[in-house]
């Protein structure tokens, strides 16, 4: 083991601050180069992939993605890679910020219980991915061995109010999405590029509920976005925001006014925007089944005063009657042209379709919800304890904290444009499925539930 690193005397020595996602180290204020010492430890650990689902992750620093490293252009880095004695595999590191063979991989092959050291000079500024490059490389990456290193330009990055670290990855488990227990890696699915999970920051729900990112109205936000892959390209998007700047592929040129930015496997992007309007903003891979069905969904909560000029909220909801017929406000209790159920069976049938069209994207096909984002309707204690309250939720939408089956949710259910008849049908369907208590909801009950709900 070589431990003496030729330290040019003129450079001050700095120990790198390393952070776990979604946090990033403080911006660099130095106006000169330094000798930066990075100490990164590889561990193989069982952690949560999703509610009730565990996975043996291989990590740079204990979690996925690996520690965020922040240095300055022209810094000389003394890089230490330690592999924990409990590891079962050798590992190494390829940093895309390195100019040199294998990005460091050739110099860092490290057996369990060993440490390797190499030096490199950061020649180019930018946001770079690092990853393990030990064979089988795909498997090491698929198990979570990636992270980001930011090489700030000499002049630094423009100041912003909030900075966060978000990194996407695709995971291949023997069981399907949500199948419980400790899930082994599935090589066949990985070869087919058919992940069971696509997530931000290593697990389903890592950026939702209590883990949501936060900002205040008026603040500027910078997201350091990476994609570890191993296979998928991310169409990174924040629902309801426009990126003022995107440093595409982590480089030095800012594209302006971007809706969705492509983040390649083994690539990165820096996105910046101002939080102008309060509310919940959902981070997604806009290959949208990945977001709502495989986990690639996070949330940014923006708090502060509303500005109705920027965003009014819904101001009108009317019946639309073309061909010159008079347009009228929709009365709360009138059912427009929708089919009217004449029996409970018919209600169940109509409700099933309504559920698929209006609810399933969030609450999922079997009403199981998505942990941390969308509460379950299956065996929901919240629903079964008070059906009228649940009718109110569907009729008016819901914001604020609720507890469902012991889990807290603090999110937004939108107000849906459903008639009393439709609410009766979909609620009857929900109540008679997935272990719920049964019964029939009639349009009359929907009307009276709404009357009570709006009176407090
Ligand atoms: Cu590895």
Please supply descriptive tags for the structure shown above:
456 residues, alpha/beta, 16% helix, binds copper (II) ion, six-stranded mixed beta sheet, heme
Average pLDDT works out at 91
**How is the main sheet built?**
6 strands, mixed
Strand content: 25-35%
Q: Which bin fits the share of residues in helices? A: 10-25%
Distance between termini? 72 Å
Protein structure class = alpha/beta
Radius of gyration: 26 Å
Ligand types: copper (II) ion
Tally of strands: 23
- Poorly predicted regions: 326-336
Shape: globular
- List the total number of helices: 9
Catalytic activity: nitric oxide + Fe(III)-[cytochrome c] + H2O = Fe(II)-[cytochrome c] + nitrite + 2 H(+)
Keywords: Copper, Heme, Iron, Metal-binding, Oxidoreductase, Repeat
Domain Cytochrome c: 346-434
Subunit structure: Homotrimer.
Blueprint (SSEs and pairs):
Elements (H helix, E strand, L loop, with lengths): L12 E3 L19 E16 L2 E8 L8 E4 L3 E8 L10 E2 L18 E8 L4 E6 L5 H6 L3 E7 L9 E10 L9 E2 L4 H5 L5 E4 L12 E4 L3 E10 L4 E6 L3 E5 L6 E5 L1 E4 L3 E8 L4 E7 L3 H6 L2 E7 L40 H15 L1 H4 L17 H5 L1 H10 L1 E7 L2 E7 L6 H12 L11 H12 L2
Parallel strand pairs: 1-2, 2-5, 3-11, 4-9, 10-14, 13-21
Antiparallel strand pairs: 2-3, 5-7, 6-8, 8-9, 10-12, 14-19, 15-18, 15-20, 16-17, 16-19, 20-21, 22-23
The site of copper (II) ion has 6 residues, from loops.
């Amino acid at each position: 083991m070589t431990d003496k690193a030729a330290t040019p005397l003129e450079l001050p020595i700095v120990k790198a601050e390393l952070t776990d996602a979604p946090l990033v180290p403080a911006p660099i204020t130095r106006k000169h180069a330094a000798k930066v010492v990075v100490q990164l430890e590889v561990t193989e650990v069982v952690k949560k992939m999703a509610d009730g689902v565990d996975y043996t992750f291989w990590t740079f620093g204990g979690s996925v993605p690996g520690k965020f490293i922040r240095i300055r252009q022209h810094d000389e880095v003394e890089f230490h890679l330690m592999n924990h004695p409990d590891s079962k595999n050798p590992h190494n590191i390829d940093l895309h910020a390195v100019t040199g063979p294998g990005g460091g991989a050739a110099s860092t092959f490290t057996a369990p219980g060993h440490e390797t050291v190499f030096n490199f000079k950061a020649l180019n500024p930018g946001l770079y991915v690092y990853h393990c490059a030990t064979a089988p490389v795909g498997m090491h990456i698929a198990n979570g061995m990636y992270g980001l290193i930011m090489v700030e330009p000499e002049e630094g990055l423009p100041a912003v109010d909030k900075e966060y670290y978000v990194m996407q990855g695709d995971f291949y488990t023997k069981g399907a999405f949500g199948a419980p227990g400790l899930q082994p890696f599935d090589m066949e699915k990985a070869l087919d590029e058919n992940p069971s999970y696509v997530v931000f920051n290593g697990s389903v729900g890592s950026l939702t509920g209590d883990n949501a990112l936060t900002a205040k109205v008026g603040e500027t936000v910078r997201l350091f976005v990476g994609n570890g892959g191993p296979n998928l390209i991310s169409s990174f998007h924040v629902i309801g925001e426009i990126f003022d700047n995107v440093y595409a592929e982590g480089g030095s040129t800012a594209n302006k006014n971007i809706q969705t930015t492509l983040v390649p496997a083994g690539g990165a992007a820096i996105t910046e925007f101002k939080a102008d309007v309060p509310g919940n903003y959902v981070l997604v891979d806009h290959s949208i089944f990945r977001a709502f069905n495989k986990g690639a969904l996070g949330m940014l909560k923006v708090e502060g005063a509303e500005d109705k000029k920027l965003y009014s909220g819904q101001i009108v909801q009317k019946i639309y009657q073309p061909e010159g017929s008079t347009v009228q406000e929709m009365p709360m209790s009138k059912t427009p042209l929708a089919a009217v159920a004449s029996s409970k069976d018919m209600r169940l049938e109509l409700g099933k379709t309504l559920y698929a069209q209006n609810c399933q994207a969030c609450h999922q096909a079997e009403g199981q919800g998505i942990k941390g984002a969308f509460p379950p309707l299956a065996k929901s204690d919240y629903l079964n304890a008070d059906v009228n309250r649940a009718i109110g939720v569907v009729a008016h939408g819901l914001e604020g904290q609720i507890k469902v089956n012991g889990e807290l949710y603090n999110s937004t259910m939108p107000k849906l444009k459903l008639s009393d008849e439709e609410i009766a049908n979909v609620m009857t369907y929900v109540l008679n499925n997935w272990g719920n208590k049964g019964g029939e909801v009639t349009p009359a009950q929907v009307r009276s539930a709404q009357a009570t709900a709006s009176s407090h």
